[in-house]
Amino acid sequence: MFTDFFYVLKNHGLNISTTEWLMLMDALDKDLAHSNFTDFYYLCRTILVKSEGDYDKFDIAFQEYFNDIKDNSFDMSKIDAWLHNDVETGKKTDPSKYIDKRTEREAKEVHRKFEERLGEQKTEHHGGTYWIGMGGGSEFGKRGHVAGGIQLGNEAGMKTAFTVMGERRYKDFRRDTKLTMRQFQVAFRELRQYSRKLDLPKTELDIDGTINSTCNQGGYLKLEFQQPRKNTVKLMLLFDSGGSMYPYSSLCNELFQAVHKANHFKDVKTFYFHNCIYAKLYKTPECASGDWIDTTWAFRNYDKDYKVIIIGDAGMAPEEFKDKNGNYSGPNGGLSGKEWIELFKKKYPHSIWLNPSYHYGDLNNMYWMESERVIRENIDMFPLTVDGLKRGIKTLMYDKKK
């Protein structure tokens, strides 16, 4: 039963065991879904999904299998645009979920009619009684006046709708998506190594010392103070700028802002490069000629204790990476990009590379991705996702000497 549904879930990356699937079948045999579609949804999610990070994957798979949206020729993005552009206020509205439990027969009939409209409607329409739109008497749309239809916007009109189509309620819970400012800030909290060995005044109350001194004085209170613990982590950020990194400029800006707003690092240095690290590190993302420092100067002035995070897609032509004259945007300094990467890793052993376009397949047969493969051999590389950043920071803080 529902064997095709099992494979749809697997194709969307959900790790479902045979035992879990048989458990779901057993639950259905015991009528734990109560012959109700909504209860069936929650039953499936409860048994098959192990983490809220996979809720969005499950919703997409569930919608694809039971609503046949993926293969429908009608452009659902157009419907979304029509219904989330409020004709009264001119403002965009966010969808939210409202469900009115109906019988299975009613549900099937409503979905049949909805699919029929999807195949017929080609333009935006509001206020009528037939097409998908807003404020009308149709069973489908937003703020309509017919109960028990399909609600595609936010609040329903006179009564709540049977279901909401096209919602991605849990997409922010995903762990394989690109990060937001808040997620960056939470992850960077792990970049902390506290110490009292800094030359700081004794301004922090020493609880244990105060107790000992008070006891030694026969109970007369004697306050003791100590140097505060401060984060000793020194961080260096290197951003690939321009070219194929343009689509990720906003993401890189959020990462940059998150680091500088954290305000708990001992020191933060930020530099830029184009495609690969060469003889110069640029001071601004424009990577303008002359607005740079020598990479060797950085080696001399920033010690090996710096934790280094390199952000880039690691993709370039092989000659850019391997040839001593491959850098077309600045000087090579007599070395290839590959050699500069090796020198950089040797100088800064605590380095990671975050890749917003991380490739999971075989890189050996990909012309533009040969550089990514070689860089991975030298520097630990992670996808620029929630899980990727967490794993990267854990690697960054690991002391290999222990």
Topology:
Elements: H1 3-11, H2 18-29, H3 37-48, H4 55-67, H5 76-83, H6 104-120, E1 133-134, E2 140-142, E3 150-151, E4 163-164, H7 181-188, E5 194-195, E6 204-205, H8 207-216, E7 225-226, E8 230-231, E9 234-240, H9 249-262, E10 267-273, E11 280-282, E12 292-294, H10 295-301, E13 307-311, H11 318-322, H12 337-347, E14 351-355, H13 370-378, E15 380-383, H14 386-397
Helix pairs in contact: 1-4, 2-3, 7-9, 7-14, 12-13
Give me a quick take on this structure.
The protein is of the alpha/beta class and 402 residues long. It has helices at 3-11, 18-29, 37-48, 55-67, 76-83, 104-120, 181-188, 207-216, 249-262, 295-301, 318-322, 337-347, 370-378, 386-397; strands at residues 133-134, 140-142, 150-151, 163-164, 194-195, 204-205, 225-226, 230-231, 234-240, 267-273, 280-282, 292-294, 307-311, 351-355, 380-383.
